[in-house]
Design brief:
The chain is an alpha+beta fold. Helices cover 26% and strands 23% of the residues. The protein has a domain of 152 residues: RNA polymerase II/Efflux pump adaptor protein, barrel-sandwich hybrid domain (OB fold (Dihydrolipoamide Acetyltransferase, E2P)), CATH 2.40.50. A seven-stranded antiparallel sheet has the order 7-10-11-3-2-1-12. It has a three-stranded antiparallel sheet with strand order 4-8-9.
Amino acid sequence: MPEQNADETNSVETLNVKPTIVPCSHCDTTEKSEPVNEEIEDEELRKLLVPKIEDLPLSPPSAVESNFVTYFAPDFMKPGHDQYVHRHANGLCIIGLATTHVAFKDEGGVSSVDFNVGKSDRSGIKVTGKRKKNAQHFESNTALCKVCTNDASYIVRCCVKGSLLEVNDRLIKQPELLNSSADREGYIAIIMPKPADWVKVKATLLGAEEYRELRKDML
């Protein structure tokens, strides 16, 4: 049998060896997975930015709902005298008649508003400057105005102890604002309570959910 020389042996072995693929150190193997990761991130972001249709309210929130927290004082001083307190983050409290106030049950609703109660005409109060000069300080049971219907009259009170900054004197000439938008243009007054006084009065008020549950037969 003829002998093979060393060169021939090496060439045969080389032909029988299966090639091994070694990944290149300069190749980025993560490139293929990046689009997948981006798709996942985009989907998560979309879920955060685009809510489900079934989670959306039937109507967009009003300016009051967006900027204020609403509390209620049902039967304040007398049965049926339901009032609201819209509280802003800066502490200001807007006072008005809740939709369940007894005045709205009378035929024709509110027909007039009179701020001449107590010892002074509340509509004559003029507060000026950052320190709210000339602001009068009232108790929660102090009368703000009197609203009248064709059959009766009702005293509207502060509900909150604090400084009276403004009354809505538009109601003198436009009392119908109470009937159409008591929680917005038909508000009664704006009061600034001290933080300590607010903490005390807040404990006596109802939140929106509690109020709706209490007056569910009237709403």
